[in-house]
User: Fold this.
Amino acid sequence: CTSIVAEDPAGKLYHARNLDFGLFMGWDFKNHTWVITEALRPMIMNIEFQMKGQVVYKAVTYAGFIGAITGMIPGVLTMSMNERFNLDGGYLGIIEWLLGDHNGKWMSFLTRDVLMYSTSYQQAKETLSKDELLAPGYYILGGNSSGQGCVITRSREKSLDIWELNPGKGVWYLLETNYDHWKAPLFVDDRRTPGMRCMNQTTQQNVGFAGIFNVLSTKPVLNKLTTYTALMQVNAGKLETYKQHCDDPCWPW
Amino acid sequence: THRLGPPQKEECVTGKYPPPQTAEYQVPKYVVNLDLPAADRWTHIVKERAKSIVNLLQKFKDFVKALDAKLAEKIFDYVDHNLGNLTNTLPQPYADEIKGIAKATEIPLGEVLLYNIFYEIFTV
Assistant:
């Protein structure tokens, strides 16, 4: 996965992500595709969660999957979640849950809770930083005003780091893949360097749906695992999702 | 480590937005009514999409079978007959939403649950 939260020169925030899933779960040698990725692509859908006919929040999901991995509260915040691979992973959380320890939160249910109940960026940031989780992960959060953007690196127990936008000091975007931002990515899976190179080439002046979509459509940020690209602008309450395809030659991840 | 990474030959692409207005790229929109009981919220969506959910789960079963057929049989026997019980321990309204999906699609509860906890399973 690759998530980007970026701010234009006027202080308007954009949040976008590529959802990559299906690594090592069956390679189709004939079509050069991942089996699970291909099965997921037709299931992508935008959901508007409504109460009394009013939109409460929006999310992107797959048919039958109730959690939210990408979502927004129009006018308030945007959010995405990236996997963080760790030996102290979610399977341990599930075992603990089975053994009766129900203190941890299920990742994609917590994001639904945040989208349902948060009234501000700060409140969401606090919840995503402090609640105990069943699995490690990265929460990428955007607010509705200048400087409100961060990447929360989570272990199952606590927040390890909060990396924040700082447009005053030239940090006008944050780009998170599946590695801790203070460490180098795995050398065979470096989507961060090309992604940042393309964001820098785009420049802050051209931040917007088109500019960010181009970055997320550049290989290997776009790869054989990519199912969709979602684009969000919080103030306008806009959420656009597009199925993605990576034609050969294309990186498998 | 950065320098050891594979060289990127691709240029940063331009002009990709907006993608074509075709089914290949466009994503449908649905409404989930939170005023409905949790068990009924997803029914209109999953009934329409049951085949694709079954297809996904079948692909996953095939993948596990290809690794070890006997182990796969044991795993999915457990999933179909025991894992569903875990739903009762999940927080609400998510437990009822998952049960509602299983009922509407007639997919075993354990399999619907397995699909919904993919994230926790695959973070290793």
